Amino acid sequence: MMLDDRNTWTYAQPPMTAAAVLSIGTELTRGELANANARWLGERLVELGLDVVEHVAVADDAERIRGTLLRLAAEVKVIVCTGGLGPTSDDLTTAVVADALGVALQRDADTLAKLEARFRSLRQREMPANNAKQADFPKGARILANGVGSAPGFSVEIKTEKNTARAYFMPGVPREMENIFDLQIAPELAKQVQASTYQVHIRTFGLFESLVAERLSDLDVGGAQHDPQVTIGYRVTFPEVEVKVLAQARDLAAARALAEKVAVQVRERLGSAAYGGKGESYVQYVAGLLRAARLKVAVAESCTGGLLGKLLTDPPGSSQYMLGGVISYSNSAKIRLLGVNEQLLQTHGAVSEEVARAMAEGALRSTEADAAIGVTGIAGPDGGTEQKPVGTICFGLARRNEPTLTFTERFPGSREFVRTYTAYHALRLFANAAKEVLDARM
Amino acid sequence: MMLDDRNTWTYAQPPMTAAAVLSIGTELTRGELANANARWLGERLVELGLDVVEHVAVADDAERIRGTLLRLAAEVKVIVCTGGLGPTSDDLTTAVVADALGVALQRDADTLAKLEARFRSLRQREMPANNAKQADFPKGARILANGVGSAPGFSVEIKTEKNTARAYFMPGVPREMENIFDLQIAPELAKQVQASTYQVHIRTFGLFESLVAERLSDLDVGGAQHDPQVTIGYRVTFPEVEVKVLAQARDLAAARALAEKVAVQVRERLGSAAYGGKGESYVQYVAGLLRAARLKVAVAESCTGGLLGKLLTDPPGSSQYMLGGVISYSNSAKIRLLGVNEQLLQTHGAVSEEVARAMAEGALRSTEADAAIGVTGIAGPDGGTEQKPVGTICFGLARRNEPTLTFTERFPGSREFVRTYTAYHALRLFANAAKEVLDARM
């Protein structure tokens, strides 16, 4: 039993500390300002091992601020709040907190002196009396030093019938908020929280969201618990799908080992669609492969109209692999700029593998590229036929001293969807060509 | 007294309808994704004349979703909710709403058929059984058609002891959410709201934000009150700047007259930079001019790498004016595909007005276009020199039977900024060419 107990304790999911983020300001509820603070705080709280259950933004309304604060104090252990600490009449936070706690406001002499000194040095005159309210704090509050501004934050304990919460209040100015959080709040929370979390991000291209879900289904993808300590999630960042493995354990090393173990399984299931980690886009990944393979490329674009070229030249230094190409949006451009045979266009139509082949070979012939892709298709919304509906795309891949590959795909969706997916599909063709070169060299 | 009372009544701010925005998804509370939907909805609700008192984002947790929904239903008249309508196991919204209302889920045959058809056309096979949950709705719910995706939203009335709220549920995918809100929800809310607001949107391209601010400064731009009933605001939607005139009055006709009066002044100050109204992008505006002028165009792109062609072919039906062109990212492509003289490149460098001219004339020569633009420049982050720093861009505009224009601009900023601004500047050149044709015809 002792052994069992110890094992249970070792592997049990550590109790998570529930937290909420409260943002105060009518500019937020009215949508005049994006709530970047809430996102930043959410991410930092999760990194610290807290369970962020809710974000709330409320207008500058004393009753609503008070009600929200007391509600959250009954529900979570940690409340992190920004905004409403300024000198104007609609900055209500401090007064509302004092009222909610049933305590008086107390002026802090040290803070007042700093505010006055800063005001004089910035504005060359005495501080108006109403600005002094930034030196007021609910009696008993702990003052949180602001390393980059004059108005500090503060922290109080809010007791309700069922629960006691620790609440932190910070200015809404992002760099002041971040300074106070990182230096004054995070160290305290890290001590308090038992669990450590570790995340592995896996970026994919080439499988639709539902197929990613299916492949990972018996790993319980989608936020369900794979194991008491691992959560797998995914999200679409069109046209990519990002997968995330989040592990929790009693220390960082254990969380990391667990996350990486599961990530290996996830990558196996996703095969070649899983291409990279956090922060690397598919375009950057393909650019890296082309550079490594020392492959020079060219394009011949019809329906994408330049998008493939635009993507290939997004990364700095893309002239290392991208030579250029032709936007052959009209038949006349296909004929005159790529040397596509007019008879071929008439016989097979502009959207055909024969024309895609001729476009790719034309781009290869008229540049010094090692590989060229031709794409021709029907992006819509009009122009589809029964045989070639909207979304029908023909690809050609021409390489030096190798037979040209051609094939047809269908990507049904909006014009933007079809064009974007087509360009990414062409990027994948270049990636595969680069991989072949790299494999042959090994 | 009677008169005073009546005057007060006439000009009183109409009673506002309280609204809340509810966002569902652990990716939001964890700060993995910025809550752009909440901001967008907050702004739209305010425009419609509602009083947005709170935004809440909650994790994918049935109890918390349920509790939040019932709490808001007791507090506000309108709840607008996004997220949690997908096919996976952590998409809980629909089931939670049914549970909160105490009704069963009902499968909608029409929605199911559409989901299955879309799945088959995308994936060429039958839809898995679990995807069918997107066709389930709480019994009695009103289905809200999704114009750009397969999963619709829905609307229900939630009765609590003190209050009855109308709640709307939409997918979290922004373009689907925006489509459903604008077409299905906004018209209904507009009818319900007492206050009349009228907005005029003025889209601009060609003036930086600070210059827009300056031009409008004595119209009290920047959200301050110009008049008790008019607010002027602006925001950057790179590379455009959008200006908004929002008027409030006791009825729609009065609000509209007021907004339009101020909008005339705003347009005068902004001159030719003010090109259009809400919902028309600069690309669509330029496409319309090219179509009207029956001008066929071609491009020769170096630093933009295809972006100009991509923008020109974004609108459906762009083959009416866009013939194609060349992506001459390398010197060899400039020489081989555009016939730029090698000596010219050596003497003046690839980034020069001489080369921009040769590129534009090359594109005109090798297509049947009426006008062609050549752009060559240094997008950065590397490659700048003292004489030609990063952001230096040379333009050439070649037309049939007219002398070629060339000039140089500098757009300092990131690689993405420089490339995007360059492509839009080229669009403006095409717009001006089209205007000249139209003027000559009059």
Question: What would a concise description of this structure say?
Answer:
Helices cover 41% and strands 26% of the residues of chain A. Chain A contains 15 helices and 18 strands. In chain A, the strands form four sheets. The first copy, chain A, has a six-stranded mixed beta sheet, sandwiched between helices.
Structure write-up:
Two copies of one chain form a homodimer. With about 450 residues, the first copy, chain A, is α/β, with parallel strands linked by helices. Chain A contains 15 helices and 18 strands. Chain A has helices spanning about 1-10, 25-30, 35-45, 60-75, 95-100, 110-125, 175-190, 210-215, 250-270, 280-295, 305-310, 330-340, 340-350, 355-365, 415-440, and strands at about 15-25, 50-60, 80, 105, 135-140, 140-145, 155-160, 165-170, 195-205, 225, 230-235, 240-250, 275, 295-300, 320-325, 370-375, 390-400, 400-410. In chain A, the strands form four sheets. A six-stranded mixed beta sheet of chain A has the order 2-1-3-8-7-6, with helices on both faces. A five-stranded antiparallel beta sheet of chain A has the order 10-11-12-9-13. Chain A has a five-stranded mixed beta sheet with strand order 15-14-16-17-18, sandwiched between helices. In chain A, helix 11 (about 305-310) links the parallel strand 14 and strand 15 (about 320-325). Chain A is elongated and about 90 Å long. Residues about 1-15 and about 220-225 of chain A have low confidence and may be disordered. The interface between A and B is large, with 89 and 90 residues.
Structural classification of chain A: alpha/beta
- Count of alpha and pi helical runs of chain A: 15
* Main sheet strand line-up of chain A: 2-1-3-8-7-6
Rounded average pLDDT of chain A? 89
Biggest pleated-sheet summary of chain A:
6 strands, mixed
- Strand residue percentage of chain A: 25-35%
C-alpha Rg of chain A (nearest Å) = 30 Å
User: What oligomeric state do these chains adopt?
Assistant: homodimer
- Fraction of residues of chain A in helices? 40-55%
Describe the global form of chain A: elongated
DSSP strand tally of chain A: 18
> Ends of chain A: how far apart?
56 Å
The greatest interface here is: A-B, 89 and 90 residues
Indicate the low-confidence ranges of chain A by residue numbers: 1-14, 221-227
